[in-house]
């Protein structure tokens, strides 16, 4: 399990961007937060996660460039407990998620939810 990482990405020509990423976990080793502080402010972001009692991810929030994108995860109910079968993701937020170096990561709406792509 990693807690910190530092990476240098080549952006264009001879320029580069440094990312210092920190990960935090709960007492069951579920990822709770990922935060990147970058030499370029447009590359910095923070992601937070919540889980249900059986360890299924129930919520994700991404903040990048001051903009928030959230995802709620819903699971098929079993007799007396949640199952681990994902039934639905509900997304809310902007179209542009984050930029890292010369790559931009986008989210856009489709008939079945949000599609993520990098260009």
Number of helices: 0
Largest sheet: 7 strands, antiparallel
- Number of domain modules: 1
The Cα radius of gyration reads 16 Å
Shape: elongated
Into which percentage range does the β-strand content fall?
Answer: over 45%
What sequence of helices (H) and strands (E) makes up the elements?
EEEEEEEEEE
Return residue spans where pLDDT drops below 50 for at least 5 consecutive residues: none
> Would you tell me the overall average pLDDT?
76
Helix content: under 10%
Structural class: mainly beta
Measure the end-to-end span.
Answer: 29 Å
Number of strands: 10
Q: How are the strands of the largest sheet arranged?
A: 1-2-3-4-5-6-7
Structural notes for this entry:
The mean pLDDT is 76. With 119 residues, the protein is mainly β. The chain is 0% helix and 71% strand. The strands form 2 sheets. The protein has a 7-stranded antiparallel β-sheet, with no helix packed on it.
